[in-house]
Amino acid sequence: MDLQFLSETEPAVKTIGKNLTQEKQFMAREEKLAKKEKKHYALESHMLNAWYGEKKILNDINMKIEANTITALIGPSGCGKSTFLRLFNRMNDYIPIFRKTGDILVDGEDVYQKRIRIEELRKSVGMVFQKANPFPKSIYENVAYGLRIQGEKRKSVLDLAVEKSLHQASLWDEVKDDLKKNAMALSGGQQQRLCIARALAVEPSVLLMDEPASALDPHSTHRVESLILELKEKYTILIVTHNLHQASRVSDYTGFFYLGDLVEFNNTKDLFTHPKKEQTENYISGKFG
Ligand SMILES: Nc1ncnc2c1ncn2[C@@H]1O[C@H](COP(=O)(O)OP(=O)(O)O)[C@@H](O)[C@H]1O
Ligand SMILES: [Mg+2]
């Protein structure tokens, strides 16, 4: 090696090195800005496919849901709505034959990454089921449950959370003098609102609801529907319903599923008044389902 050459080129190498560092810094800044500008959706699915054993249930589902909106999933029974809903808090993990490809994001983060802790995920993505499932405990303990398993022991904190959640679930006035009463003694509609309060107590950002009113009488259904509308201010809600009137009453956006395909996704008004696909039109006009 020619030492003379090396010493002559050294300043040039240094300059290149300096430019490279500057360029790196510039790129890092650009990346940061791009990330900041990139819109975060509350919920997203990318090319989502799912199977139970050999049976394919969902085909290439792409959906983007903005925060503080209500999205209804409609479609005939067995077409994959519940399976899709349960992906967002990983409830399908319990089914050994379940398998999926594609991504599910909550607040911009892939919830199937290894480092995701399921308990944390379930705290931010709460769920309410079709059949109210209160625990055979007092009203108070039902609502305090999530905080207790997180280790909260302070009575003042629990009292406050119970009251706040029952208020949010519009049940407080009916039960405030009876918090020690067994939850199983409440009416079906009250039990469902209690389950909503239980889900809200751990302060989720997303609420998944799988036909939450389908087992309720019309009056209780109405109460739950108005409650869902109120909750939109604070939560992003994804709701499965086979009740088309309910979908059109409560939701901002609607997705129509058929045989594992997301046939159409649009704002609710347009989907119901100007469906783009024939299958959607046939379904909403009651020709099948
Ligand atoms: N745990 C399971 N094991 C096997 N197959 C299932 C399971 N859960 C649902 N399925 C099947 O997956 C398909 C979609 O079900 P689901 O997501 O519950 O539909 P929907 O909520 O639209 O009625 C159905 O054919 C159903 O039989
Ligand atoms: Mg279902």
Description:
- A 6-stranded mixed sheet has the order 6-7-8-3-9-10, with helices on both faces. Strands 2-1-4-5 form a 4-stranded antiparallel sheet, with helices on one face.
- The protein is an alpha/beta fold and 289 residues long.
- It folds into 2 domains: 1-38; 69-94 and 108-284, Rossmann fold (3-Layer(aba) Sandwich), CATH 3.40.50.300.
- α4 (139-149) crosses α5.
- The protein is built from 11 helices and 10 strands.
- Bound molecules: adenosine-5'-diphosphate (ADP) and magnesium ion (MG).
- Adenosine-5'-diphosphate binds next to α2.
CATH topology of the largest domain: Rossmann fold
Number of strands: 10
User: Percent helix among the residues?
Assistant: 40-55%
Give, in order, the helices and strands: HEEEHEEHEHHHHEHEHEEHH
CATH architecture descriptor text of the largest domain: 3-Layer(aba) Sandwich
What structural class is derived from the secondary structure elements? alpha/beta
Major sheet attributes:
6 strands, mixed
Radius of gyration: 25 Å
CATH superfamily of the largest domain: P-loop containing nucleotide triphosphate hydrolases
**Count of helical segments?**
11
* CATH classification class of the largest domain: Alpha Beta
Q: How far is it from the N-terminal to the C-terminal residue, by CA?
A: 81 Å
